[in-house]
Amino acid sequence: MKRGTRALGVAESFGPDAERSTLCGAVVRADRVVDGFAYETCRVGGTDATEAIRSLFRELGREDVRHLLVAGVAPAWYNLVDLHTLHEVVGIPVLSVSFEESEGLEDALAREFDGEALARRLDTYRAQPPRRPVDVGDDRVFVRAVGCDDETAARVVSAHTPEGSGRPEPLRVARLAARAADDLRRTHDA
Fold first, then answer.
1. From 3.30.460.10, 3.20.20.60, 1.20.120.640, 3.30.2170.10, which CATH number describes the 6-185 domain?
2. HAMAP family attached here (predicted)?
3. Buried-most residue among 41, 57, 93, 174 (CB within 10 A)?
């Protein structure tokens, strides 16, 4: 992958008793140069994360971004991201990257929701592609990919992950920036 290839990493942050989660999109090149930021929010426990990420992508207006990396599929307390819908609207490969082994979210969703709220989340969750393990150095991440095959997804994640980091740089930077923005928002709201 070329050093200047850009990926948009999206990660989130929300504090205790928060009603909204801060999403940050960080454009980072494969050579680790940070090249832009955008922010959006979604409702904690809501169903608007996919739309918020789409809005964030559109706000950036960056035609040079080649891949969209999202930290997991359940930000903001199970505000599930529909990777297929995101891929359709942004027109580039969309990869969800998570960092821990898991049996899945179905049991957790069933504990937290019921009725239509549960059914909607289960439908979205079950429609997502399976997670595939990807080794990055001495670490392992788990990737869901829409818009590219598993081999390409693994190459993209590896190309954007510094040796010894275990986390793709676009997601690491986005997470740090989301936390800082969330802290600032809470300070001003207090």
1. 3.30.2170.10
2. UPF0215
3. 174
State the residue for tokens 């190459």. Answer: 155
Q: b vs e for 114-151, b when ≥16 Cβ sit within 10 Å of the residue's Cβ?
A: eeeebeebbebbeebbebeebebeeeebbbbbbbbeee
Residue-wise pLDDT for 116-169, tens only, equals 999 999 999 999 999 999 999 889 999 999 999 999 999 999 999 988 788 999
Mapped onto helix, strand or coil, the DSSP state of residue 93 is coil
Per-residue confidence (pLDDT) for residue 190, from 0 to 100 = 65
Residue type for 58, please? R
